[in-house]
Specification:
Mean pLDDT: 96
Strand order of the largest sheet: 3-2-1-4-5-10-11
Shape: elongated
Number of helices: 11
Largest sheet: 7 strands, mixed
Radius of gyration: 22 Å
Distance between the termini: 59 Å
CATH topology of the largest domain: Rossmann fold
Strand content: 15-25%
Helix content: 40-55%
Number of strands: 11
Order of helices and strands: EHEHEHEHEHEHEHEHEHEEHH
Bound molecules: adenosine-5'-diphosphate, 6-O-phosphono-beta-D-fructofuranose
CATH class of the largest domain: Alpha Beta
CATH architecture of the largest domain: 3-Layer(aba) Sandwich
Low-confidence stretches: none
Length: about 325
């Protein structure tokens, strides 16, 4: 039976991602435009259990669409993985008059959203992660910004690497997924792209490629290595020893998660935030908003969590063939 929506809550959970603020802003302003009240929950599920809950008005989300991070803060919360924690979270929602919740985060946060929904709070998830590793959607809030940030940083490393005729290994984020690495690999014209989904752990292939490229007159060799493979520093030492070519490793790290969101992240996050509110008003629960085949759609969380996705074979082949 659909709960009548009067007040909705919004929280961000898991790793922050640029564009989360645009999504929060959209939830707040759309809900108020539709005649609802909004409460912001600080620091994800941890803030919910600690009752860090604030009223939000349209002016509270002014001047933030362009800012990275999340103004609500985010956290990881073990207690919310327990049935007791989840039940308490739902009770706290009821105590504060929250009938519906928008959770912005990754797969783990969706599990929490499912739990809230099971415990009687209508809940909708939005895909917020730089990793693009949520199977149900072709777009996640933050990926576009993270890739552009990494691409710009890699261009800079490539300049100095070329000047010194070095080999560079640049490690990008992505947890166990290689999407950031694949995109940077193509966008930066890397000679080798190492993805957790594809890597055969045969370093000799890379070494042969470097030697081959030197013979062809290439003055640099750029390897994009995904965090899911890691070990960039030791890889650099082994490659230098085997090729005699100076090799440096750079781990881009958290810079990829910060910074002002791109237009795409601002716009898509805004549409997703607004759509989450309309889905709640329609009485739906236990759904996630996805971007699929050029459209914003919603889907059951369980169905979304059971989906799998992988690196496109064609894109990987293109990346390999263009790096000659
Ligand atoms: P992400 O949402 O980016 O995948 P995490 O996996 O760290 O990040 O999950 C974020 C938070 O979501 C966790 O700290 C926890 O509070 C909650 N969460 C994760 N898994 C579950 C689960 N199985 N049940 C309930 N809550 C969960
Ligand atoms: O999920 C986003 C992400 O930045 C991953 O790319 C990375 O593996 C992870 O979060 C790092 O998490 P933490 O902030 O806990 O170090």
């Amino acid at each position: 039976m659909a709960n009548k929506m009067e007040t909705i809550g919004v929280l961000t959970s898991g790793g922050d991602a640029p564009g989360m603020n645009a999504a929060i802003r959209a939830v707040v302003r759309m809900a108020i435009a539709r005649g609802l009240k909004v409460k912001g929950i600080k620091k994800g599920y941890m803030g919910l259990l600690n009752e860090e809950i604030i009223d939000m008005q349209p002016k509270d989300v002014s001047d933030m669409i362009q800012r990275g991070g999340t103004v609500l803060g985010t956290a990881r919360c073990l207690e919310f993985k327990t049935p007791e924690g989840q039940k308490r979270g739902a009770e706290i929602c009821r105590k504060h008059g929250i009938d519906g919740m928008v959770v912005i985060g990754g797969d783990g946060s969706y599990r929490g959203a499912q739990a809230l929904s099971r415990n009687g709070i209508n809940t909708i998830g939005l895909p917020g992660t730089i990793d693009l590793d949520i199977a149900c959607t072709d777009y996640t809030i933050g990926f576009d910004t993270a890739v552009n940030t990494a691409m710009n940083a890699i261009d800079k490393v490539k300049d100095t690497s070329s000047s010194h005729e070095r080999c560079s290994i640049i490690e990008v984020m992505g947890r166990n997924a290689g999407y950031i690495a694949l995109w940077c690999g193509i966008a930066n014209g890397a000679e080798d792209i190492l993805l957790p989904e594809k890597y055969n752990f045969n370093e000799q292939d890379i070494i042969n490629n470097i030697i081959e490229n030197r013979k062809k007159g290439k003055t640099h060799h750029l390897i994009i290595n995904a965090e899911g493979i890691g070990h960039s520093a030791s890889m650099a030492r082994r490659i230098e020893a085997a090729t005699g070519i100076e090799t440096r490793a750079t781990i881009l790290g958290y810079m990829q998660r910060g910074g002002s969101p791109t237009a795409k992240d601002r716009v898509y996050a805004s549409i997703m935030g607004a759509k989450a509110v309309d889905i709640l008003i329609a009485g739906k629960t236990n759904r996630v908003v996805c971007y699929k085949h050029g459209e914003f759609v919603d889907m059951d969380i369980e169905e979304a969590l059971n989906m799998t996705k992988n690196i496109s074979e064609y894109e990987f082949e293109v990346a390999r063939l263009l790096s000659v």
